[in-house]
Each structure stands twice: as C-alpha cells, then as structure tokens.
Amino acid sequence: MADNSITLVGNLTRDPELRFTTGGKGVASFSIAVGRRYQVNGEWQEQTSYFNVVSWGQMGENAAATLTKGMRVIVSGRLEQREYQNREGEKRTAIEINADEIGPSLRWATASVERTPRNEGGNGGGAPRGGNAGGNGGGNTGGDFFPNDEEPF
Q1: Is a pLDDT exceeding 90 seen at residue 77?
Q2: Which tens digits make up the pLDDT trace of 9-30?
Q3: The domain 6-110: what is its CATH number?
Q4: Is residue 113 over pLDDT 60?
Q5: Predicted local confidence at residue 120, as pLDDT
Q6: pLDDT-based confidence at 143, cuts 50/70/90?
Q7: Long-range contacts from 90-98, C-beta under 8 angstroms, 24+ separation
Q8: Please, what sign has the CA dihedral across residues 115, 117, 119, 123?
Q9: What is d(CA 27, CA 133) in angstroms, rounded to the nearest whole number?
Q10: Spatial distance between the Cα atoms of 43 and 41, rounded to a whole number of angstroms
Q11: What is the pLDDT of residue 14?
Q12: How many Cα atoms sit within 13 Å of 116 on the Cβ side?
C-alpha cells in the first residue's frame, strides 16, 4: 500500500481561520512558508515555498486558539488534492496538507502546553483523538493508540 505523508517546518503566513461545518465540526486553515538556503557557485540562494494546511476537529480548534502569524510550526500530515469551482464557475484544483499533527518548533522558542478540557458526549469535541471518553477501560476507539489507555500529558 502506498503511503502519502509529509512533514514540514515553516512559519505561519497568516493567523489560522476557524470555520465550522453544518454538523458543528471545526476546521482551521492556514498557510506556512518553508524556506530553503543553498549555494550555487559559492553564492547563497534562498527559495521559499508556500503550503496551505487544513486541520479538522479539536486539533483545528486548538490550532486556531494557539497559533498566530509568524510562529514557527511543525506540521505532519497528508498531501491531498481537491477540485472546486471558483465564483466564475471555473474548475480549479487545490493541493493542501491535511494535518495529522501540528506543534510549535522549539528550535528558537519555548512553549507552554495546556491540555484542553474534554467535552463528554456528542461528536462535537468528545475525547481527544485516540482518547477514551468513558474513562478507564474501554478500548481503542480509533486514532492513535496509547499503551494502557493512557493519553499523553
């Protein structure tokens, strides 16, 4: 089976924009600039690439509440291509990163991690991904597996 994964380190070019689906699921979108320096004939060159990122659910809400323009972040996810129509009715294609994980880069900064409170019940924010909303016991309900039903933090 082919795998499609990408990890990027870059700076946010704008604050995340948070929207909600009609079902109440949060989705944050933002873009990052990824710079690269290299030498050609002893002279330094710079190249910057820009990537759109989409983050769903609680992670998207957390990203919108935490991240701001200029922050250096690490984004891990999948490249996805989608088609849409612009206002003039023309077909367009967008390639974006559907984020699985987002975090601050600690190379030149510090961060303070605060766990978000759980909302019991409903689909609009229950347990964190891979978590167990019912407390101890249960099983893995999807997402990442944490040994002994322990969640990080």
Answers
A1: yes
A2: 999 999 999 999 999 999 999 9
A3: 2.40.50.140
A4: yes
A5: 56
A6: very low
A7: 94/52, 95/52, 96/51, 96/52, 96/53, 96/54, 97/6, 97/8, 97/51, 97/52, 97/53, 97/54, 98/54, 98/56
A8: negative
A9: 21
A10: 6
A11: 97
A12: 18
Residue pointed to by tokens 């690490």: 74
- Cβ contact 26:85 at 8 Å: no
Domain boundaries, the chain: 6-110, 119-153
H/E element holding 66?
A: helix 57-66
In the chain the first and final C-alpha atoms are separated, in Å, by: 33
- Which residues, including other chains, have CB under 8 Å from residue 32's CB and lie 6 or more apart? 8, 10, 11, 12, 13, 50, 51, 53, 73, 75
Helix, strand or coil, per DSSP, at residue 29: strand
- Closest by CA position to 50, among listed 21, 75, 20, 85: 75
Comparing CA positions, the residue from 127, 11, 138 lying closest to residue 58 is: 127
Per-residue pLDDT at 3: 84
- Give the lowest-confidence range in 55-59, 105-109, 149-153: 149-153
The answer, yes or no, to whether residue 74 has pLDDT greater than 90, is yes
